[in-house]
Specification:
Length: 427
Amino acid sequence: MLPTQTTAETELQKEKNMVSPSVVQNIVFNNADPNEPRSINLYFDHYKGEPIYRVVAYLNNSGCEWSVKTGGCTMCGTKNSRLGRKISDAEFSNQFALIRKYVTQFNAQLDVPVKSLHVYNDGFFFNDNEISPESREQIFAMATDLKMQKLVVETNGIDIVKDDRNNDYLGKAVKRLGETEFEITLGIESTNPLIRALYNKPDSFEDMQKSLDIIRSKGATLKGYVLVKGPMLTEAEAYADCVETIRNLECWSAGKRFRVEFQPVCHLPNTLHEYLMQLDHADPYFWEPPLLSTLFRILANFPEMGEDLYTALFARIDRDSPWDFWVNRPHDDPETTYKLYLKLVDHYLYRRHESVTSALEIAHEDLWLKRCERKIEQSLEERVAMVKKLLELSRKNRVHLSDYLKNNLANEGNFWERCSRHLDSLK
Ligand code: SF4
């Protein structure tokens, strides 16, 4: 407080500097033009104990190498937006110019400037085939020129381990960014090797685990994405896996800091879960998004994590968003869904554990209990073996796994029976 300020003036100042969810903006560009990002989004967040504004830019990109070479992870939708060819430094530079322009505009409109910049290239951030050192340097320059307190990028364990062996781009970037914190978000998804295999993750369990320490040892901040209910898991299995994953991360971190962002799975074209959504509801493999209240149930286990544990907001949702809008996203029943969503917004903004406990008071327990009755007979090992065989076939046929299933499975019987019959027919 300035010495001449009264308490009332300070309160007024605080109110004026309030971060409001109502300013959210989603600016969408031409998805086929490498000179424009796919979108630039003004969102809110929580950083060092207070609500802040952040900007998230999705770059038009060449595509994740894993996805291009193998079809990628079973639940990932980045294959739908990649341009499938290298993006030149000049093209990236044009994308960055637009990001700079919009951040400057947002800052001119807001009471408090944007503090955190997220730049996502839907792949491996330190892979020169996806984004060159020169373009990365432009991103770092953009973050420091725009006076960001934090720069956030996404990548994967395989990328971090390779970079550690070869170029140390990460270590150099931390030094280059100076006061600007560098947060690396890793697509961990799960610490269960079988569940990671079900998702077809590119990095080995060992590389994923090693990368956690590499990131911290180089002075960057570690954050892991944890997937909430990927394909071929029941709601109860997904819940247990998320809780166990966070406990494992806590144990491996041995008192050092780690952050977790839940990624609740939503409907996405050309994914395995898109195919599973079309199954009969009685089929054990029928997939539907997790309950919104399941996210709170997971969060409720970790009150001590404070601002370092939160769940991604999956879209901007308004009171009058039609029910159809929710069907492809985490939801409970029509009566409670929007109320729960507001609790999620509140938690995102303030990270108060009270948002979690009060959300669970609103949620209808019977929905959760009903979901918990769903069972899958086959073990995780059996499911992984099946997915591996199907992925191999889809790769041989050069089609997405979901298309392979659509084109080759007969309609009789449940999903497991259809897959087994199909594999038998190929013997
Ligand atoms: S989840 Fe990540 S590693 Fe997997 S295909 Fe998508 S972008 Fe690539």
